[in-house]
Amino acid sequence: MTEEKKKVKIVPNKVKMPEQPPEVRRKNFKEVPLGYSEDQAIEEAKRCLQCKKKPCIDLCPVEIDIPAFIGLIAEKKFQEAIRKIKEKNSLPAVCGRVCPQEVQCEQVCTIGKKNEPVAIGRLERFLADWERENGKVEAPQKPKPLGKKVAVIGAGPAGLTVASDLARLGYGATIFEALHKTGGVLVYGIPEFRLPKAIVQAEVDFVASLGVEIQTNALIGNLHTIPELMENGYDAVFIGIGAGAPMFMNIPGENLNGVYSANEFLTRSNLMKAYLFPDHDTPVKKPKRVAVVGAGNVAMDAARTALRLDSDEVYLVYRRSEAEMPARNEEIHHAHEEGVIFHLLTNPTKIIGDDKGWVTSMECIKMELGEPDDSGRRRPVPIKGSEFIMEVDAVIMSLGTNANPLLSEATPGLELNKWDYIIADEETGKTSLEGVYAGGDIVTGSATVILAMGAGRQSARAIHEYLSNK
């Protein structure tokens, strides 16, 4: 008689992440989720079925062996677990906080077919924080130098990834960053309460420990051109400058004082620490009633930042319904909890100001959803005669971003598409120029941190192949 297989007990729900209460956190810029304890991480890791097919790996843009590191957590082998992650990902503390795991690795988690998926992102964050807080960050072994150099333009997620991957292979990688701080969107775009800047710096320090040289205040296209970099001894170039130029609606009143792009508003607050003015040099207007137009993650960041600047009311204005919002569910949930007022199926038509040029209100029109458009979402259609006035003293436009033309205009022969993004091969990042590669938002338009990192990984492989065969 054969022995029956012992059934694995399925725990249906994720271990809940401790958080600051909404009424407390809306008054500070401290991180909202507080992270797992060791016991909580082990408990959650034991929910992983260690299934044979491992579909989660296939949907991870940087190809982390997810079941392996989770299995090591379950055995309380935290050091081995973080080593396993860092074989593929040099920014685990960042990814564990801001990557949309719910539409990537967790979406195909086997246990998630009938229950909640394993909290992969929370476990990745736990390991990165455990390593840093316990002084366990290991200095990586440096490979034998290959005698070839690569210039990486931009110190955002794509640039940091391609530089770290190439450094691990033995290439001399130099990152040129236009701003005075490294991290790209991680430091100027994502607020402190979602991604503390000290954590970003710790991740950047790890990349530097691999042997990557980082030059800040280095605006390529101005300081040097790409042809000049190639002439000065760089064997290949990777462009990862993001897409930082703002978009507006082109409605009357957008030139009034008190109208911001989300980029400007968040850069002032995040990178320049405007919320700490006058202790820091850059001020930001602290509006009483602010409207944020848009519904992506950036819009949620802007709205939740405005709350923390002591605004009495913050309105999120979006022309579709909540079901069509592109923001992560977690960010929408947090915005609701903190008191952001959602004006859905609403679209601005005009911004109104006083005789001194400051915003006083915004005219809007109600919308209804019609037939699906090219995105697959139902097209919003104005309802005739439904115009109304919203009393606000600041408007933040969060409509996406455009490519900054400075670098492309200084690079003859670099092919662009009709939106002025760089045309690059999807698999390799190869551009129209020999030895020049590109990835991240400058190729795709606004996307996620992890997709930019995935593009950096693909380009690093392609650059290695190119230089090996050269």
Explain what you see:
This protein is α/β, with parallel strands linked by helices and 470 residues long. The chain has helices at residues 22-25, 38-45, 55-58, 66-74, 78-86, 92-98, 120-133, 157-169, 185-188, 197-209, 226-231, 262-270, 297-308, 329-338, 406-409, 441-444, 449-469, and strands at 149-153, 172-176, 213-215, 236-239, 245-246, 259-261, 289-293, 313-317, 341-343, 346-353, 359-372, 378-382, 388-391, 394-397, 401-402, 436-438. A five-stranded parallel beta sheet has the order 3-2-1-4-16. Strands 6-14-7-8-9 form a five-stranded parallel beta sheet. Strand 8, helix 14 (329-338) and strand 9 form a beta-alpha-beta unit. The N and C termini lie far apart (64 Å). Mean pLDDT is 92; it is low at 1-5.
Keywords, separated by commas or semicolons:
470 residues; alpha/beta; five-stranded parallel β-sheet; 17 helices; 16 strands; 32% helix; globular
Short description:
With 470 residues, the protein is an alpha/beta fold. The chain contains 17 helices and 16 strands. It has a five-stranded parallel β-sheet with strand order 3-2-1-4-16.
- Count every helix, treating DSSP H or I runs of 4 or more residues as helices: 17
**Overall spatial form:** globular
How far is the first residue's CA from the last residue's CA? 64 Å
Largest sheet: 5 strands, parallel
Helical fraction: 25-40%
Q: Compute the CA-based radius of gyration.
A: 23 Å
**What structural class do helix, strand and pairing data support?**
alpha/beta
Question: Can you tell me the residue ranges where pLDDT is under 50 for at least 5 consecutive residues?
Answer: 1-5
Quote the beta fraction. Answer: 15-25%
The order of strands across the largest sheet is 3-2-1-4-16
Determine the mean pLDDT: 92
